[in-house]
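Input for the complex:
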Amino acid sequence: MPDAIAIKGVRKTFGTKVAVENLDLVVPEGSLCGFIGPNGAGKTTTIRLIMSILFPDSGELRVLGKASAIESKDRIGYLPEERGIYKKMRVGEFLRYIARLKGIDAAPADAKVRQWLTRVGLEETYRKKCEELSKGMQQKVQFISAVIHEPDLLILDEVFTGLDPVNRRLMRELISEQRRAGRTIIFSTHAMREAEELCDHLFMINNGIKVLDLPMSEVWRRYDPRTITVEPIAGGPSLREVSEAWGRIPDVLRVVMGPGAEPGTCDLMLRDDADPAGVMRAVAASITPRRLELRRASLEDIFISIVGISADELERQNSSQGQEVARA
Amino acid sequence: MRKVFIIAIKEFLATAATKGFIFGMLFPPIILGAIITIMPLLMNKKPPAVFGHVAVIDRSGAVAPRLVEAFAPEAVENRRKERTAKVREAIDQGAKSAGLDPDTTKAISGELDKSLKAAEELAPVTSLRVVVLPPETGEEEAKEEIRKAGKRNEAPPVGAADPGPGPRLALIVIPDQAVRGSDAAQPGARFGEYQLLTAPRLDVEVQSDLRSQANRAIVDARLALAGENVAQIRELMQSPAAKETTVTADGTASINEVTKLIVPAAFMFLLWISVFSSGQYLLMSTIEEKSSRVMEVILSAVSPMQLMCGKIIGKGAVGVLILALYSGVGITALIFFAVAELVPWQNLVYLGVYFALAYAVIACFMAAVGAAVNDINEAQTLMGPIMLILVIPMMLWLPILRNPNSTFAEVCSFVPMINPFVMVLRLCGSEPIPFWQVPASIAVGMATVLFMAWASAKIFRIGVLMYGKPPNFATLVRWVRMA
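Predicted:
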């Protein structure tokens, strides 16, 4: 399968700050690639390099088989992190303008605008000014502006930020729809749940350096389950009484209770070479469990284990982040 | 190129199709046109007739007969004819000194006749008699009649053979001192004042006529008492008229000073307004796109260069619209008044050429500043020094026009950024300038455009995605060098 994006040894600096260092990345056509990393890791810079909004100091970069995205801008859909909209423009007019800039003729552009607005439930906003829309509505309009020209490559930067659960679900459906249509999609996100659900490839960057670049199946295999969650049935021995005994099971590294575990449960952290089935049998023999679960590592766990920062903390950083110095 | 034009059309419509622009740009010429065409119609309502009498208490005994004579119907008619003749003479003189050919002058005279006739029709119909009261009449008693007179618009009785004196509209009280002075031994020393008392809301034209005729009658009475020939002195006191002619290299030409100054100044101000209005629109739109973060969305579809070119072309079209609109109104007015010869067609060509050069330079500058800053306040900081240079033609237009071939004017014609304005000023003036300076200044303008386009493209490319600390001039220079 040919590559939609091929980046080799790319480096980008802003003054003395290294934004991206020796980056290699290959995104095969038709894949849905999640791009995660803490704030300031270099995600947006990488995306802007892919979009030829910025240019690398060194290294090679090919997008849709061309040396630069400029040569194939009409085949790329882009939803930037800093989403903008002409506030005084009417929704239909704005989308028509973007569609025309993306190479669609005037008449089909209008038909597509109406069709997409209906698809996302905003058909009544065609004549409304953009500033009259709610934030969620504006994001849908912005998503339409990224996909209206049916691009081969779709790049979505923080697409789930600011959406309520209903609109998050709609956005997941829209992204899945685009993928079913055969488009290559890259989306950067802090929404680990969506990344887990949608991606078939995961790419993580930290301090400008790539720290993870694997298919999701490989991620799950490599970050194999290492935790057993136990919740005893009411009326039996207390957790505190039995936890000492569990701590003595050879395959158990440590037992976590209270903070770090769900209320009324405790987590048994296993050694790397542990036999989870044996541990579960031993636990079941000591108490009657209400729940005994071999927990799969979440993407958030993986993220934290690599970056050392929780997703909640990341969200807080994201919302409190003031003026970003986004250098061109 | 297609994308550049899509952006240009959007930029043009985003400005020219707004209520603010339509109101701001179209309203003044519409109002001007309305004033020229509708106002005379609105004013074409004949003022009500003035009917009544002026009482005179002449304590000198030398003025009242002169006033009676001055307000005799034939004297009033003669004064009206004299006024008309003076106005016609002044306009004829002005048209000749403006360098108009005889046909145009004749056409103007024709229009003038119509206007004067209309003015005569519009003038209040005055039917004033002078009633001389005995010198011993008390002022209060005489004033009482004015109070009783009531409305000034009282019409004379229809069909009456002698309508009578009518209501008292004014009272003139002339003390002896106003004619003979305070010292009888020294005629003319310390003349006293006289009183003119009028009814409320008496027509200002009538008041003015009363005042001037009373003044004239008193002065004439003084001259007569001094034993002078009044008619002869009046003749001698007439002001002489000057026939002004400018000696040029081609001979002599009658050129009006006003024409020399107003036409070139109008051209330069028109150029300045159209260039800076469109430049300002470009600046505001760039800042808005950047601050609303829509810039990155657009840049995902076009390159920074395409975006900048589209914006410059679009707002340039707005400038052309402003220029065409205002110059069109001006030329229409000149044609209407049959003085289109004041603006040779070459001047319009120069205006177009220098507009293109001036706008391109200012637009590149505005685009670069707009891309570099986060809001209008930061933009003003960066624009300050440049604006100081650009206001030079505005500040010094008069000295440049008065001496368009001075060293200062010639140097300014080759200073980048201001040379289009200075050249328009000089070319539209009355004094010819060396022809080589025209292509030379255009070459300087084009070189400036190329340099500004190169530098602003680099600043624009970096600046559009740069947020946070506002840049200073040193930063802009660094961006130009690093991009």
